[in-house]
Design brief:
Helix content: under 10%
Radius of gyration: 16 Å
Structural class: mainly beta
Strand content: over 45%
Shape: globular
Number of helices: 0
CATH topology: Immunoglobulin-like
Distance between the termini: 18 Å
Largest sheet: 4 strands, antiparallel
């Protein structure tokens, strides 16, 4: 499910079959920038990844905020199609954070849970 639950089924012999998908947040970019931005895994404990589902590279500003609005991480980079950009969150305490991604024409935000 979207909450990261695992579906299990009994196997014909000894063992268990586990089907899982990496939980993620998907943000649809506005009309100015076609495509979707995925943030995964979510929840996370050491790294989150930003991946662009689009046909071209996209210059972005990435910011990570605490739930009370304090800026913790700021990074300017170019997201490439079919490539995941890692962001180190290993030193952050458990809690809720917000990732904000700004392009030339759009600004989108997503909640990230650090476990």
């Amino acid at each position: 499910s979207d909450e990261g639950d695992l579906a299990c089924a009994s196997a014909a012999g000894p063992g268990t079959i586990v089907e899982s998908q990496l939980p993620s947040s998907t943000i649809e970019l506005g009309a100015g920038e076609q495509g979707e931005l995925r943030i995964f895994p979510n929840p996370a404990d050491d790294l989150i990844y930003l991946a662009l589902d689009a046909s071209r590279e996209l210059p972005v500003s990435i910011q990570l905020f605490t739930a009370d609005g304090r800026l913790l991480i700021e990074q300017e980079t170019t997201l490439l199609p079919n490539q995941a950009l890692p962001i180190d969150i290993a030193d952050l305490p458990k809690g809720i954070y917000f990732v904000q991604v700004t392009t030339a024409t759009d600004r989108v935000s997503a909640k990230v849970v650090v476990e």
